[in-house]
Amino acid sequence: MAEQIYHYSLQELFTQGFFRIPDYQRGYSWEQTHRADLLSDIEKLRPGRKHFTGTIVVHPKDRIKVGISQHKLYDIVDGQQRLTTIIILLQCIYERLKILANGQNDENVEDIRTGYVKTKGIPKIMIAEPNSAFFSHILDGKQELFECCDNRTQHNLKDAYYQFSNFFDKRSLEMGPSFGDWLMDFFDRLTTRLVVNFYEIEDELSVGIVFEVVNDRGKGLSQLDKVKNFLIYSILECFPDEAHTQAEALVHKVNDTWASVFQSLELANRWRTENEEQFLRAHWLICYNPNPRIYDIHKEVKTRFGALSNAGLDSFVAEVDYYLDSLKEYAGHYQAVYKPNGAGHLSIRVRDSLHGFNRMGNVATPLPLLMALLHRFFKQETKLFETVSILEKFVFRVAILAQKRSNTGVNWIIRLASQVHGMNTISEKALMNELTYMAFGAYVGDAYLSQLLSDPDFDYYGWRGIRYFLYEYEKYVVTKHIDGAMMHSWEYMQQKVRSKQPTIEHILPQTIKGIEYWERRFKTEKAHARWCHSLGNLVLTDSNEAMQNNSFGRKKGGPGKKHTYATSGWKQEQDLVAYQEWGMKEIQLREKALIDFAVERWGGHVTGKLEGEVPPDEIEMEEENGAAEAKNECFC
User: Fold this and answer.
1) Cis peptide before 130 (omega within 30 of 0)
2) Are 251 and 208 in contact (CB under 8 A)?
3) N or C: which end of the chain has fewer CB within 10 A?
4) What is the pLDDT of residue 631?
5) DSSP code of 516?
6) Do 187 and 166 contact (CB within 8 A), yes or no?
């Protein structure tokens, strides 16, 4: 690394050349508060004063041709979040100055764009795919081309643009004719009085180490960052000087692996630090040590690879290769679990089963085993579907229906995941036996399943699984209709929930006072209370507000009558037209139909006696959970 530390204004910084954010760096993650702090720092600058705004660490790459000129190209090692924010801010300043120029060709205004934003169509700061084109549209101010976002980075980039645009629009209204002078002063403060420390690292092998040193002085590194940096450090320590080329190749592989991991996390919309650490931990539990009490993966990696560094170079390289290969593979499996639609290599029915976990909102507990199953049965679709669907039934029966703790079975699941991966081999038959017992015998048997769905004292309307249950029922009902078309997606239903539009209709209304039709059929408050929130009285709808407390006949409607069961887009509402009236008997009949469906959908259908036992470590965890709950503590 160069010994000299330069203190540059942004004006001086941008004359150094062009900058690129490598694909092994995480995406743009600054939020509104970070950007607001930057704006505040600029506005509060006193006359003649400068403000230190951070450190920029770069590594020189090949030169880049722009027009007929050659320019330096730097990879940004640290400072990419701040520089990305600043270039968007400069684009917004340019747009406002362009408007103030009133169509006249102002060379000073165009110099801002060519000097800070884009030179001959090349962005001064380039970001990696899949966000490069999106970022370029922002730097061109082409709002129609960056309205639709594919991932969190793009959302954050768009939010930055609109936050700065709104900031300048507000100042323009406040200042009136003096806005132009204020804006030029703001631009001058930004480009000449904000100062950065500029490091230039010549040796590529030192990039990760310097990143850790510099970053540790500010925001703490994530586990994923620390693991990457330790691997690079270990490579530097283990390879002799004469093996520089081999060391560089292995460092390249580390960076390529992290690029793939970040891309998978981004595509899965799991971009937060806690998501990174969840993935990193799941991978370690599956591939290295299935101890559920392990959380500090950086420490585990240091312990394992630190010891290997003394075992010989070949052994060390083989272990690093395996770690990187498995990490990259399992990042793809992690993405498939959370975003099944993007997993085109999986069959439709496997993707639908994976969707089930996300719709239930319970992915964390089965995650290690799901990832391990995707690894082991990658080319065995039938076996993959069988195992994943059993696991989905386990989660529904135990966590959703029986409402046991969300981490029930987690020790069991982690142990199976490590065995499925291959640490301790398990045969397909033994795996199916354990999964079957875990799902259908250990916690919730089929008789208990039916009992839970017909409990007269249970409020099914307030049950957190009701939307998922009725949505799955809708998928079933659709197959019984001639057209067989699913009108509404799960995303559509969730959108309605977020907009506070009701999606669950009480066929027998919650309020019946003064409604003769209902009062004749449910003559006491006790009768009404008994059946109102029962499973057989609930249905998915788009017309809850329109139907309100209407009689059953008015709710049924007929051909052409909007906001009625007859014209609903939900097949389960259409099926209600077959009932002549709605009373206790009809609710019981529909309840039985729903329970029959549930037994078919989530039942075990196991002949003979299920044999097995809950593993001792799982019993121990349940006891710890109970003790923690008694103390009002959260067990994680």
Assistant:
1) yes
2) yes
3) C
4) 33
5) H
6) no
The H-or-E segment that residue 19 falls in is strand 18-20
Closest CA to 398 of 356, 435, 444: 444
Question: Do the bridges between strand 194-200 and strand 51-60 make them parallel or antiparallel, or are there none, so unpaired?
Answer: parallel
77 close to 58: Cβ distance less than 8 angstroms: yes
Helix (H) or strand (E) holding 451: helix 446-453
Nearest partner of 608 among 426, 448, 440, 444, judged by Cα: 440
| pLDDT higher than threshold 50 for residue 547 | yes
Tell me how far apart the alpha carbons of residues 266 and 28 are, in angstroms, rounded to a whole number: 10
Neighbour count for residue 409 (Cβ, 10 Å): 28
Q: How many CA atoms lie within 13 A of 27 on its CB side?
A: 28
pLDDT in tens, 39-98: 999 999 988 889 998 889 998 988 898 888 899 999 998 899 999 999 999 999 999 999
Rounded to whole angstroms, the Cα distance separating 263 from 270 reads: 10
Count of alpha carbons within 13 angstroms of residue 5, beta-carbon side: 8
Specify the amino acid at residue 506.
H
CA distance 544 to 502: 6
Question: 527: how many CB neighbours lie within 10 A of its CB?
Answer: 14
DSSP 335-377: HHHH-GGG-TTS-HHHHHHHHHHHHHT--TTTHHHHHHHHHHT
Instruction: Select from 120, 126, 117 the least CA-distant residue to 93.
Output: 117
Convert 472-490 to b/e letters by CB count within 10 Å (16 or more is b): bbbebbbeeeeeeebebeb
**CA distance linking residue 76 with residue 59, whole number of Å:** 7
